[in-house]
Design goal:
The chain has three domains: about 35 residues, no CATH class; about 230 residues, Distorted Sandwich (Beta-galactosidase, Chain A, domain 5), CATH 2.70.98; about 375 residues, Glycosyltransferase (Alpha/alpha barrel). It has 21 helices and 36 strands. The longest helix is centred in the middle third of the chain and has 21 residues. It is globular and about 85 Å long. It starts with a strand and ends with a strand. The N terminus is likely disordered.
């Protein structure tokens, strides 16, 4: 039922929220287009958290590209340094890496003797660490950079496409009155044109994708269904069913490191899969011919798609110990065949809405003349003009929630660089888990938007990382206590630094992934306050902290602790002498992440009543960490020395980690450091990649820079042409594609999630202080564009609360705080809005 209400002089269309009560804006929950998709960046994504599809909605041919989030190349990462065949790694007698530099002032200016290490016989990776530190202290950064390549291992594996179903229309049609939509309130895609309507959804309860085709007058349906798969596969069809059996390469490399020549197949190795397509016809007939299916003279037909892979967890061989994927796929199909379309749709919608309907945001009303236009047209006009379109801004926020629900419901398999939607066997950057920002950014909105169940995919994955992470710590860094994670990981949970001896250290050798990703374990606790959960993950938190404390070294002639070697993700410095490099000592991104990791672990230990000596050890380490420095340009220093960046507008801003997603720098507690962060962002400007723009929305919001945050949010919604677009108006760079997916470019989903989280940070911020008291700030960065009137419902806050509130003319008019702690015990909280501070126990 569509309801209309009048607020002031504005007529607003609203949709019911189902079982939750209340209403939501229809326009901010619907993507709609007047033509089919030609490119991936125009197609509409559907997914059930494991299985997904991109719907193109063509008239003559309807292309549906399919994915399964567990379909990867590779096998368990059973040896941490795969190309050395190390055995009994747990029993290696590893010397401890030096904790301090040996200072020799007379040699400091001389060429480092450690250059000789480059010519030594092959060593175990950790044995090179002392030589790197020696070179760094002698200011021989070039040698240190080259030596870092000796501390590199194998690459991640590649996420793979499942295949493409093409529905060929055998009837001639004009395609008049064409409409293509994605309804976020029901997770339902539709295509309609003169004579036909199609509906598509991916059901989590039934583990299938369902397509319904209906003749809406005129000719009956006549279709041909064909299937194409880029992997090793066989296709067979009989009766109403098509079956695809295939398998992935058991090893591969990224496109930039080996390309298609690096794929190695063996039918007895690697992840296997079975896909079944079954057609149910209402009338007419369905026949199989030449491994295809034909639908003849039907008024209505269902296509049900089930898939299963043999992946059984990162520790299990997918052939020897894999799941019975053939039986699982068949069971899913058989189960669906006993249900009607309407019943499956109802079950799907009810399941989906229990998550989606928890949150709603109203930022204002868009003129009817604007919202009537197709979504891609709105996006283009929004980018080119100062068009006021709060419904589009809400739509982007809601789309992020929709995407997370659709791609993150598989235990221990998080959303990857493309969520779960990928059409290439060599996707950009392997579509892996890049741990220097991207996989973490995917989950920034999870707790805020009241979707902890979706966060669980990452949280359970993190719990598995120490399996290989302890070996990486020992073999690559000579550390026998704790675990670590480098620049990339994959479905197998590999943790070693990549590069294979030739990767550029600016991206290959970073090793702070464990320190960063483990903060998600603490954040889940902070939002839910479950002591039993904290007890479950404490060992993982402690292991990340142990690695950090053992990796730190003393800065010569001081008591300050720093990292050496250090890199700042994918960025490079330029020394006064003109050398451009990545390897240094004392990088502030490392220090920021270590500070956050140690603080979280210490607080967890205190809450759980753990060893007081260990707590004191962390406190002493925190006290001696190198403090932040402000550079000559008023910026927060990224490098130990006040050097210039090789690229002042570089997309990464890792040294601002303490501002966001960390909690070390605030405008109230550390105003000078906050001002330095603001200056850093001013220098970087606002032209960057999609995911970086999403991060900057959050950074500006934390700085309480409302207009800057809003400006960057609008920049994030900058229209980018779909790949391959040949029109005169080609637009590139970071932003948003016509289907509202994030443009890195190319497509990466992290920008969507960063933007969704950023909008929340503008409206609500929360912090857990003193380990048991929360501070919740309302409208900390409300821009002028949203001041007139608005509301928030269901946003989750640290301390174990959800909050609903309304505002008018930039002032909070009412709010309701709800305790959602797992133990239901009251907590201490202070709500701040305007000039009011309201402490309470709730």
């Amino acid at each position: 039922m569509l309801k209309k209400i009048i607020l002031g002089a504005t007529l607003i269309n609203l949709l019911p929220l189902g079982g939750m009560g209340g209403y939501i804006h229809a326009q901010s929950n619907l993507l709609h287009y007047k033509s089919p998709a030609t490119y991936f960046e125009e197609a509409l994504p559907i997914g059930n958290g494991t299985q997904g599809a991109m719907v193109y909605g063509g008239v003559g041919e309807d292309k549906i590209s399919l994915n399964d989030i567990t379909l990867w190349t590779g096998e368990p990462d059973s040896t941490i340094y795969a190309n050395q065949n190390l055995e009994n790694l747990e029993n290696l007698d590893l010397p401890e890496a030096p904790k301090t530099f040996l200072v020799d002032e007379e040699e400091a200016a001389a060429k480092s003797d450690s250059i000789a290490a480059l010519d030594k016989p092959k060593q175990k990776p950790f044995e090179t660490i002392p030589a790197i530190r020696e070179a760094l202290f002698k200011e021989d950064y070039k040698t240190a950079n080259e030596l870092q390549k000796k501390v590199q291992g194998h690459y991640t594996q590649n996420y793979q496409p499942l295949g493409t179903l093409t529905i060929h229309n055998l009837n001639e049609t004009s395609g008049n009155d064409y409409t293509r939509t994605l309804d976020l309130t029901r997770a339902l895609a539709t295509v309609s044109y003169q004579g036909e309507q199609r509906e598509y959804f991916a059901s989590a309860p039934d583990s299938v994708i369902v397509i319904r085709m209906k003749s809406t007058g005129g000719k009956l349906l006549n279709k041909r269904l064909s299937y194409n798969c880029q992997l090793k596969n066989t296709v067979s069809a009989a009766g109403h069913e098509m079956t695809i059996d295939g398998y992935c390469a058991y090893t591969s490399k990224p496109g930039y490191a080996g390309g298609e020549n690096s794929f190695v197949y063996d039918e007895k190795r690697g992840i296997h899969f079975r896909t079944i397509l079954h057609v149910i016809n209402k009338d007419g007939e369905v026949t199989a011919e030449n491994n295809e299916l034909k639908i003849n003279n039907c008024s209505e037909a269902l296509v049900i798609i089930a898939n299963a892979t043999s992946f059984n967890g990162s520790d299990y061989d997918p052939v020897m110990d894999g799941r019975d994927y053939e039986a699982i796929a068949k069971s899913r199909i058989n189960n669906a065949l006993g249900k009607s379309f309407d019943s499956m749709l109802e079950t799907h919608v009810n399941d989906y809405q229990q998550y989606y309907n928890r949150v709603s945001i109203d930022l204002g009303t868009t003129a009817d003349s604007i919202i009537a236009k197709p979504t891609d047209v709105q996006l283009l006009e929004y980018s080119d003009t100062a068009t006021v379109n709060p419904d589009l801004e809400e739509l982007y926020f809601n789309y992020g929630r929709y995407l997370l629900i659709s791609c993150s419901r598989t235990n221990a398999v998080p959303a990857n660089l493309q969520g779960l939607w990928n059409e290439s066997i060599l996707p950009p950057w392997s579509s892996n888990y890049t741990s220097n920002i991207n996989v973490e950014e995917n989950y920034w909105p999870a707790e805020l938007c009241n979707l902890p169940e979706m966060h669980n995919s990452l949280l359970t994955f993190i719990q598995k990382l120490p399996t290989t992470g302890v070996k990486t710590a020992a073999e690559y860094y000579g550390i026998n206590e704790g675990w670590c994670l480098a620049h990339n990981t994959d479905i197998w949970g590999m943790t070693c630094p990549v590069g294979e001896g030739s990767g550029d250290p600016m991206w290959a050798n970073w090793n702070m992934g464990g320190a960063w990703i483990s903060t998600h374990l603490w954040d889940h606790y902070a939002f839910n306050m479950s002591k039993s959960y904290l007890n479950q993950v404490y060992a993982t938190l402690k292991g990340a902290a142990d690695f950090c404390m053992n990796w730190l070294v003393k800065l010569p002639n001081t008591n300050y602790l720093i990292t050496a070697p250090s890199t700042s993700p994918e960025n490079q410095y330029k020394t006064p002498a003109g050398y451009v490099g990545a390897t240094l000592y004392g990088g502030f991104a490392d220090i920021a992440m270590i500070r956050e990791c140690l603080t979280n672990t210490r607080d967890a230990a205190i809450i759980l009543g753990e060893d007081h000596e260990y707590i004191e050890k962390i406190n002493n380490t925190l006290k001696n960490l190198l403090p932040y420095r402000v550079g000559k340009n008023g910026n927060l220093q990224e490098w130990f020395n006040d050097w210039e960046d090789q690229d002042p507008q570089h997309r990464h801003q890792s040294h601002l980690f303490g501002l966001y997603p960390g909690h070390q720098i605030t405008t109230t507690r550390t105003p000078d450091l906050a001002a330095a962060c603001k200056r850093t962002l001013e220098i970087k400007g606002d032209k960057t990649t999609g995911w970086s723009t999403g991060w900057r929305v959050n950074l500006q919001a934390r700085l309480r820079e409302a207009e800057n945050a809003y400006h960057i949010y609008r920049v994030l919604l900058n229209y980018v042409s779909p790949d391959g677009y040949q029109g005169k108006d080609r637009r590139s760079g970071g932003g948003t594609y016509p289907n509202l997916l994030d443009a890195h470019a190319p497509f990466q989903i992290d920008g969507n999630f960063g933007g969704t989280a950023g909008l929340v940070e503008m409206l609500v911020q929360s912090e857990l202080v003193e380990r048991d008291r929360a501070i919740i700030s309302l409208l900390p960065a409300l821009p002028k564009a949203w001041k007139a009137q608005g509301s928030v419902k269901g946003i989750k806050c640290r301390g174990g609360y959800t909050i609903d509130f309304e505002w008018k003319d930039g002032e909070v008019t009412s709010y309701q705080l709800n305790n959602v702690r797992s133990d239901k015990q009251p907590g201490r909280v202070t709500v701040i809005y305007g000039d009011k501070k309201v402490p309470m126990t709730k």
